[in-house]
Amino acid sequence: MLRFAGVLAIGLAASYLAIPDPVNPDPNGPRPIPAANTLFIEDMTWMEVRDAMKAGKDTVIVATGGVEQNGPYLVTGKHNVVLRGTTEAIARSLGNALIAPIVPFVPEGDIDPPTVHMKYPGTVSVTEETYRALLTDICASLRTHGFKHVVMIGDSGGNQEGMKQVAESLNQDGKGKGCRVYHIAEYYDFKSVADWLESEGIIQQPEGYHDDFGMTAMMMAVDPSSVRTNQRIAADKFRINGVELAPAQRTIEWGRRIIDFRAAATVKAIRAATQDDSP
Ligand SMILES: [Zn+2]
After folding, report:
1. Where does the pLDDT of residue 19 fall: very low under 50, low under 70, confident under 90, or very high at 90 and above?
2. I need a labelling partner for 183 at 20 to 30 A (CA). Which of 68, 159, 172, 273 fits?
């Protein structure tokens, strides 16, 4: 009986050993199924990320958005919605890039007592210090995994300086062998977008909302419900700054064109920055 129990124990131990450790799988284990067609890291398996990097994806985009007070029709995550469209257009155009999870936590004003957007419910703010610490750890994680170019872009004005400082300090910390971190300021150029739209005949009369035609169109291209398309049509409020948004399909096409316009300027700047900068 004792002998039988011993054999049973050895048998159980052997079969237990044959099961991989869930927190320690073989880093070189083969991917058991074909890869999905996405460039968003959080929508990929770790094996898909590994294999994409092996196949030449040496650049990663770290984009900062926000959660804040916007006009009465736009969801608080406006910048993050827009970035889902722009980052994908940028990465597809670059051809060698993946997209890190979009960073929704950025400085939006003092927390207590609240200032700026923080005076409005739903806004989430972090201090400049927290923001920089967050970006530092995100970029350092991606650097550890072997990306050669970590490219930061920001959809909101208050995001820019922190990204610039984080890029500079990571590039100087002595741990960045084979990797460089960039802040691409050219992405944040709403003036060019506004001038271009005006040259195309889209003339806006500001209504005093934290909203405009370009933002609304880009959001509609990603997710029409994020600007409350159906409710506005029902309430006869489907316009912004005096520009009609109907038919929705035409505004969605504008959104695609604006996304492509911004992506083209950003890709140009990323290529210029990374070109003669082989780490
Ligand atoms: Zn903003």
Report:
1. confident
2. 68
